[in-house]
Specification:
Largest sheet of chain B: 6 strands, mixed, barrel
Strand content of chain A: 25-35%
Shape of chain A: globular
Order of helices and strands of chain A: HEEEHEEHEHHHEHEHEE
Helix content of chain A: 25-40%
Number of strands of chain A: 10
Largest sheet of chain A: 6 strands, mixed
Shape of chain B: elongated
Structural class of chain A: alpha/beta
Oligomer: heterodimer
Largest interface: A-B, 27 and 30 residues
Number of domains of chain A: 1
Strand content of chain B: 15-25%
CATH class of chain A: Alpha Beta
Number of strands of chain B: 11
Number of domains of chain B: 2
Radius of gyration of chain B: 34 Å
Number of helices of chain B: 14
CATH architecture of chain A: 3-Layer(aba) Sandwich
CATH topology of chain A: Rossmann fold
Radius of gyration of chain A: 18 Å
Chain lengths: ~250, ~425
């Protein structure tokens, strides 16, 4: 049953899903035509689960993460996270949702070059309005968890790619989001650093119970990290009705 | 977490953002500073000129004076003067005597000057007190005293003003003296007077030159030539020689605001009057137009500076597109992004405006020094305050600079707020 394939691995029996996606579609206007980046996606992600979306470039992985993270709004269908219909939220409410509930990790790290590692991590807390003393404490704890505290005073240009991605992960988890969205987090890293970052994400999921949705080309790494791997092709989850074979590869 | 703390942190983030491109923003702020400085200087210049003009009017009590002329069948007699003096709020009323080409001599030196009459008691002399550089005003009832201009004192051989006090000078007056009926007698008379005081007429006092000698009315009225004008008027009067009277009487009000009512009262008696109140209103209108014109020129400069801010911030938005995407991804709202850029433009306005005020004051001070040095070289001893900066000009210019800057930041801020975070994060 396709619905089984996209249900949370836990159960498939267990806790209530954090994210519920139904009939999700996203299309964009390109010139005079429309491109459908996502098409009729149904999906549940359980609380505390690690889900990895794989697929070729343009398959809709990033679009799905953007919709889960409230950066984008659906053309059709719904995305509920924590019981909230993201498509029904105002831009202000979606900003608040991202501020409190979501953490983003990007392939290109996207650190602010003029800020130190610690300042980059505290940025998320500043946007939230956390008191300076408390945010410094939280930022240093996050950097420590990711083993990068000694480089807290360094700017991104003084850090290696792996270190920058650790800072990026620290920024994404410093406010303890319920949902961590990582878009190709190892895409710009060498093998060793990629392994290290994936291992850190696993630790975060285990220790903090953070739900993680990951987009990756690297199916091997995805399988090692994730409790569930879902393959996207042409905007549809494989295994879903009308999407051909496959789906949950685990 | 508190909303206020969050807003304050956003302001600090904007300040940090602004500090990342100090040269670019500094140059933009310098543009605002130059424009604000120009605006402040130009308006301050117009206000300075206006104040100088009005101040001299005020100091000389010119706006309190009403010149009264005989009316049809209404000669200006001593009785009429006494009536004017009894009107409410009249500080002084006295006949106007002016004796041109009087000779003033001392120790073999002879100068030609202009004698004018002033009452030796009562009001109307207040402004002279401020012009005295040595000595005092007339003593009550004095008829053989004189107040002379500083330049005249020096010409008469008194090196310093104090040296002239108590000194004797000889006045030689010639002219027609009216007699009974319709006859005049040419007369020449010599009077020795004591110098009671020396005054320095201000540059703006057109009726008090450096050759003026002021005499008590009782004395000047008795000098030949001082009343021939009145006598000629009397001959021309339909009332005939029996009408008598003075050619002009000065009525001094206690305050300028009382002049219109007094003027109406005097006119009601059938006399003609002239005052400088109307001239003063014309002057005010002229300065208002000048101020508006100069402020408009300064405002154009400030609007150009506002376009500079617009340009600078558009470049900043383009450069920081990815950063804006990151801010949005971690929870900044469109309003937060808008505020970041508006605060940045406000900072430019504040820095430029404040710098502009300082620049305007500095340039004005330098120009003032230059103008006064030049005036000094031209023999004008009185210091001229070319610029005047009341608080409302400085506050208004600063506010205007900030408003123009924030207006200049509106479009870039709106553009930044509208940036799609997904596209922004891809734009790396």
């Amino acid at each position: 049953m396709p619905t089984d394939l996209t249900a949370p691995a836990g159960a498939r029996g267990a806790p209530a899903p954090l994210a519920v996606v139904r009939g999700l579609a996203r299309s964009y206007a390109v010139g005079s035509s429309r491109v459908r980046a996502l098409d009729r996606v149904d999906l549940d992600i359980g609380e505390g689960e690690v889900v990895c979306f794989t697929g070729r470039s343009g398959s809709g992985k990033s679009t799905l993460l953007h919709l889960l993270g409230g950066l984008d709004t659906p053309s059709e269908g719904t995305v509920h996270v924590g019981g909230r219909d993201l498509g029904a939220l105002s831009p202000q409410e979606r900003a608040l949702y991202r501020r409190v509930e979501v953490g983003f990790v990007f392939q290109d790290f996207h650190l602010i070059p003029s800020m130190t590692a610690e300042q980059n991590v505290t940025l998320a807390l500043r946007i939230q309005g956390v008191e300076p003393h408390r945010r410094r404490e939280l930022a240093r704890a996050a950097l420590d968890r990711l083993g990068i505290l000694p480089r807290a005073g360094h700017r991104p240009g003084q850090l290696s790619g792996g270190e920058q991605q650790r800072v990026s992960v620290a920024r994404a988890i410093v406010h303890r989001p319920r949902l961590l969205l990582a878009d190709e987090p190892t895409g710009n890293l060498d093998r060793a650093n990629a392994e290290a970052v994936l291992s850190l994400l696993r630790e975060i999921n285990r220790d903090l119970g953070t739900t993680i949705a990951l987009a990756s080309h690297d199916e091997d790494s995805a399988q090692r990290l994730s409790s569930r791997v879902l393959r996207l092709r042409d905007g549809r989850l494989e295994g879903a009705p009308g999407a051909g074979e496959g789906g949950d590869v685990r | 977490m508190s909303g206020l703390s969050r807003q304050w942190d956003l302001v600090k983030l904007a300040v940090e953002g602004a500090r990342r491109t100090p040269l670019r923003l500094g140059l933009t702020a310098a543009g605002v500073a130059i424009a604000t400085g120009a605006l402040v200087s130009m308006v301050g210049f117009a206000l300075g000129l206006q104040r100088e003009g009005e101040e001299s009017f005020r100091r000389m009590e010119i706006l309190q004076r009403i010149q009264v002329h005989p009316g049809q069948g209404r000669p200006l007699t001593d009785e009429a003067i006494a009536r004017f003096a009894r009107l409410p709020h009249v500080a002084a009323a006295y006949p106007h005597f002016r004796l041109a080409d009087i000779e003033i001599g001392r120790d073999g030196r002879t100068e030609r000057g202009l004698a004018m009459g002033l009452p030796s008691e009562g009001g109307g002399l207040g402004y002279l007190q401020g012009l005295l550089v040595a000595g005092r005003l007339f003593e009550r009832g004095a008829t053989r005293e004189a107040l002379i201009a500083g330049a005249l004192a020096r010409s008469l051989g008194f090196p310093r003003a104090q040296d002239a006090i108590g000194g004797a000078v000889v006045l030689r007056a010639r002219g027609l003296r009216p007699e009974e009926a319709e006859t005049f007698r040419y007369e020449e008379r010599e009077v020795t007077v004591t110098v009671a005081g020396v005054f320095e007429p201000p540059a703006q006092a057109f009726h008090l030159g450096g050759d003026v000698v002021l005499l008590p009315i009782e004395l000047i009225a008795d000098l030949p030539g001082s009343r021939h004008r009145g006598a000629l008027d009397r001959l021309r009067s339909p009332e005939g020689p029996g009408g008598g009277g003075y050619s002009q009487v000065i009525v001094v009000a206690e305050r300028p605001g009382q002049v219109p009512a007094l003027e109406r009262a005097i006119r009601a008696e059938g006399y003609a009057t002239t005052t400088l109140i109307g001239r003063s209103e014309e002057m005010k209108r002229f300065f208002l137009v000048l101020e508006v014109l100069l402020a408009a020129v300064g405002s154009v400069a400030l609007v150009v500076a506002g376009l500079g801010i617009l340009n600078t911030l558009i470049v900043a938005v383009l450069e920081r597109t990815t950063e804006i995407g990151v801010y949005k991804a971690i929870g900044a709202s469109d309003g937060d992004i808008r505020m970041l850029f508006l605060v940045e433009s406000l900072l430019v306005g504040l820095a430029g405006g404040t710098g502009g005020l300082a620049l305007g004051r500095a340039v004005s001070w330098l120009l003032g020094v230059f103008v006064n040095a030049y005036a000094g070289a031209q023999g004008i001893g009185t210091r001229v305050a070319v610029f005047h900066f009341p608080g409302w000009v400085l506050g208004g210019a600063l506010l205007f600079a900030i408003v123009v800057s924030v207006l200049g930041g509106l479009y870039p801020a709106a553009r930044a707020a509208k940036i799609d975070p997904i596209l922004a994060l891809r734009s790396n």
